C-alpha cells in the first residue's frame, strides 16, 4: 500500500503542472449543444491523456455525443467505476466574464474558466491521481473511467451506452462527479443520489401571423392562452395541480430524516446571496432541507411571446411558447409526468398547447451504508473533518442507469464544489487548493477501497 506521505509529496512536487494541465483541458470549448465538432478536440486530448496511464481507451457511442471509456487493472480484487463528463455549458452572457471563458485565468488563488468546476476538475483530478499512484507503485483497485460527452444536454444516449456496455461498466462501487462538496461553513458534504427531471417546451399558435392589437377584441391571443395553461399547473406554494402527479412520490425514511437533521439550511446566508424575502411555503428551519429534496417541482424556465423591445409596439402575438422543468423525486418517472401533463392540459381546455419533449432522467438513490460509501466517508473525515450527508442532491444527473439498472452503489464525493463556484454562470471558478486536495483524496479513497 502506498503511503499517504508519498502521495502528498508527489502531488506537491507536481502541483504547478497539474494546475496547468487542468487549464489546458479547460481551454477547449467543448459545448455539447454546439454539436460533435465542438467537443471532439477535448475528447481527443483526453483520450491521449488517458492512454498514458490506462490499459486501453475506447469511444462509446449510442447515437449521441460519444463517451470515453478507459480501464486500468488494479492490484486488488475490487473494481471502481469513475463517472465524469467533458462537455460544458454555453458561456452566455459573454460580456459578464472578467476574462475570456476558454482562456483560463488564475486570480486570488482561483482558476476561472468555463467548465473548470463542472466537470473538468473531476476529470483531470482522477487522471492526476492515477498518474500519482502509478508513478509510486500501481493502482490498488481496477479503475473504469467513463467520461460522458453530453451531460449538459440531458445525457440523451447515456442510458443506452450504460446498457450496451454493462459488462465493461460493472463495478463494486462508483464515484460520481463531485457535487456541492463544501457548504457555506466550509464543511464537506456527500450525496448518495439525485432528483430526476422532465423538461418540456409548450407551444401555442392561434393566428397565422401577429396582428394589430386593435383586433384583440375579436382575435384569440396565443399569449393569454398559454399563460392560462401555465397558471393551471401549480400555485405560488408549489402545489402542483396535475392529477396523479404525486402518486409515485415516496416519503423520506427515518434514516433520511436523521441525515437531513444534520444539514444547516443556511437560510439567512442564502437570503443575502439570492435576495428572496421568504421561501416557498415559508417552512420552519428544520423543514427547509426536507422540502428542498422531497418536494417535486414544476418550474417555468422561460416564456417567449410578443414584443419586449424598447418602447411600445401594439401587437397581438400569434404564437407563444414556454419551457418548463419538473424536478422529480423517487419514484416518479419523467415519461409518466409528460403523459399526465398532456391529460391535464386537455382536461382543462388547453388542448391546443403542443408539448415538445426535452430531456428526461429518472431519480436515483444509493445506499449510504455501502462499502464505497463507508470508504468515502472515512477518507473525507480524515482529510476534511466530519462530512455532512445528504440522501441525494437537489439537482439531476444520469445516475439511474448506473445505480438502479446496473446496481452499482454510488457516491457523489468531495471535490471542488463550493457555493461560489458560479457553475453555469459567467466567471465559473474553483479554488486551486481544492483541486490539489481532490487529487489527494482520490488517491486515499482508491487505496482504502482497493485494500479490502
How is this structure best described in words?
There is one protein chain. The chain has helices at residues 4-13, 15-26, 36-51, 116-136, 158-164, 166-169, 222-231, 254-261, 267-274, 288-294, 334-347, 371-384, 400-405, 432-451; strands at 56-60, 67-72, 79-85, 105-107, 110-112, 142-148, 173-175, 189-191, 193-205, 211-212, 299-305, 315-316, 319-328, 354-361, 364-365, 388-390, 393-396, 410-411, 429-431. The model has no long low-confidence stretch (mean pLDDT 97). The longest helix has 21 residues, at 116-136. It has 14 helices and 19 strands. It is globular and about 80 Å long. The protein has two domains: 4-192 and 366-451, Zn peptidases (Aminopeptidase); 195-249 and 296-361, Alpha-Beta Plaits, CATH 3.30.70.360. The chain has 452 residues and is α/β, with parallel strands linked by helices. α1 (4-13) packs antiparallel against α14 and α2 (15-26) packs across α4 (116-136). It starts with a helix and ends with a helix.
